[in-house]
Amino acid sequence: MKAMELTDLGPLFEALHGAGRTVVGPTVRDGAIVLAELSSADDLPHGWGVELEPGGYRLRRRSDRAAFAHSAGPQSWKPFLHRPRVKLWEADRTGDGFQIATDSPDPPRYAFLGVRPCDLRAIAIQDRVLMGGRHTDPSYAGRREGALIIAVNCTEPGETCFCVSMGTGPQAGPGYDIALTELLDDGDPRYIAEIGTEAGAAVLADLDAAAARPADVDRARAEVTAAAGRMGREMPAPDLRDLMAGSLGSARWDDVAQRCLTCGNCTMVCPTCFCTRVTDTTDLTGDHAERWQLWDSCFDPDYSLLHGGAVRSSAKSRYRQWLTHKLGTWHDQFGSSGCVGCGRCIVWCPVGIDITAEVDALQAEADSP
Amino acid sequence: MTPMTPVPYRVAARRADLADTVTLTLEPVAEPIAEPAPGQFTMMYAFGVGEVPISVSRTGPVLEQTVRSVGAVTRAVCATAPGRILGLRGPFGTGWELDAAKGRDLVLAAGGIGLAPLRPLVLAALADRDAYGRIAVLIGTRTPDDLLFAAELDEWRARGAQVEVTVDRPAPGWSGHVGLITGLVGAADIEPALAAAFVCGPEIMMRVTAQALIGRGLPAAHVRLSMERNMRCGLGWCGHCQLGPLLICRDGPVLPYERVLPLMTVREL
Ligand SMILES: Cc1cc2nc3c(=O)[nH]c(=O)nc-3n(C[C@H](O)[C@H](O)[C@H](O)COP(=O)(O)OP(=O)(O)OC[C@H]3O[C@@H](n4cnc5c(N)ncnc54)[C@H](O)[C@@H]3O)c2cc1C
Ligand code: SF4
Ligand code: SF4
Ligand code: FES
What we know:
The complex is a heterodimer.
Chain A: E1 3-6, H1 10-18, E2 22-29, E3 32-37, E4 48-53, E5 56-61, H2 78-81, E6 85-93, E7 98-101, E8 110-115, H3 117-131, H4 138-145, E9 148-152, H5 163-166, E10 178-185, E11 188-195, H6 198-205, E12 210-211, H7 214-228, H8 241-246, H9 252-259, H10 265-269, E13 276-282, E14 288-295, E15 305-306, E16 309-310, H11 315-334, H12 344-347, H13 355-367
Parallel strand pairs in A: 2-8, 8-9, 9-10
Antiparallel strand pairs in A: 1-11, 1-12, 2-3, 4-5, 6-7, 6-14, 10-11, 13-14, 15-16
Helix pairs in contact in A: 9-11
Chain B: E1 7-18, E2 21-28, E3 41-46, E4 50-58, E5 63-68, H1 72-78, E6 85-92, E7 105-111, H2 115-127, E8 135-141, H3 150-158, E9 161-167, E10 177-178, H4 182-185, E11 195-200, H5 203-215, E12 223-226, E13 242-243, E14 246-247, H6 248-251, E15 254-256, H7 257-264
Parallel strand pairs in B: 7-8, 7-11, 8-9, 9-10, 11-12
Antiparallel strand pairs in B: 1-2, 1-6, 2-5, 3-4, 3-6, 4-5, 12-15, 13-14
Bound molecules: flavin-adenine dinucleotide, iron/sulfur cluster (SF4) (2 copies) and FE2/S2 (inorganic) cluster (FES).
């Protein structure tokens, strides 16, 4: 497909806003690169990079004006599509029962700008869970179907990234409307834009951008290929079903349980974790009820309540549930890994538990005679 | 109307089966949910209190659900008076798949409230009596006073089922079996190699019962269990009902014994 060159993202913002879309992308806020509504290309984190380590995240100044040379921040796109709190319906008491009203507000029409390949795959994984089975989550589906995805191929992987070994990056896979690659000349960015869908083509057609030079397209490819060689971390394979199923009795779970605080941060920052709880409430009169769907975490002891107690009461069993689900049983349940290698759970774990190190330890135990 | 919206059902009749257990007959106020298969469950909503997974205890033209009061929601559901409205979503999950046992002897083994999900299976087998060989219903309860559907058991016997009951703690006047339900397995008048088993009760009861049946020569491949996990949606979205590779609301609750055995034996899975 023909690629275009964008020397400046200003016109892209104008086209997206002109089409009535809310542009969401990376921006610097409170010492981190977060995802938020952007009003112009000036809001992008030009010249900012990040330093990542287990349990640590720091912004750093770059010597150039790159806008996308930073890896995954504390949020993913998850809160925009699979919202942390959704009111499912409300109901009022009637003579013999109740009357339910479901209001379905028009979903926002987002343009997600700067979706990294790992996060692009994470969206596809949540699509499978929330709209690919027998029942479709209408709140998720409405937001998802209204979203235009502008991916950014990754030229700057972080210290905690391992998309290559999960098969999710650094080149964006299917699912984007437009994919950008950022090229820097004397520190100033320009972009090679590739079209993924007709909706993406329509946006680019409005920009009156020039076709990209073949040499630039080759250079963009080469920079992404080079990034694949600079991954900070690695997993043994994308499919760790056998290792996980064979490690349920490992002593390593006791070891990690000594460190894990069961805070659930990892599940909140993970772009694929989808668990929710449903709570039914009433107002003080008792005549008006609401049902809410809230993000939940398998680290919460109440998550597995049954017969007066939790099925998974120990920290060890809850950590094991998180890791074996993510890397193993997710394949059985939804046909892929539940991990895309974004590294967020490593960075945002307060005690710096590193899932690649935990897997290495389980693998070493499995390999030892 | 979304998959999370309860469908209003009126309580047409309420029968107190036991001190803590009630059977409700439910009629749709307007549109019904799809007809549940024996073994399937609904999410029952009590206004303002909450929603819980409950199996159907009769299905077909009449829908019944049998609920044991153990907490806030089940207490509210059990207390719902005739004429009042509850919400139902579903039906969800796998059924017992009685058809796959055509021509075989049937053993149905229940522990406590586990008899409720097996009742529509008994009724379906008795309604198509000639399609099956001998039918044995084995029931374990704590005391004679905890025997569910006691008034119906003679009717099941009259229609050609063997019904055996054992209690953990006998009361004065009890002349029946005493002890674990495994003690009844030997009394089931069936040809084990040609039988199929359906088991519902606490996990440990299901395990030992399945083992005893298999010990008598019943093929493990013909044993099905109904599993229970915390459930918040019934739709495969909330994650709570996971048991290893399974989502119990989607892949279960009724599952082949051979599929769940390796999962049941891992502590805190
Ligand atoms: C597929 C399925 C079918 C079921 N069928 C029946 C049935 O036919 N009849 C019946 O009486 N019960 C049935 N149950 C159990 C019933 O759902 C629980 O007793 C009920 O959820 C408890 O809710 P509560 O609000 O009344 O109690 P809570 O106040 O929530 O808790 C009371 C006790 O029940 C436990 N509990 C909480 N949630 C669940 C849950 N989802 N499942 C099991 N225990 C839970 C708690 O740990 C606590 O000890 C079934 C459960 C499942 C998963
Ligand atoms: S498990 Fe960790 S590395 Fe994998 S997708 Fe989730 S947050 Fe990212
Ligand atoms: S692994 Fe880390 S982030 Fe996850 S629950 Fe344990 S302490 Fe919290
Ligand atoms: S009950 Fe929610 S996923 Fe099964």
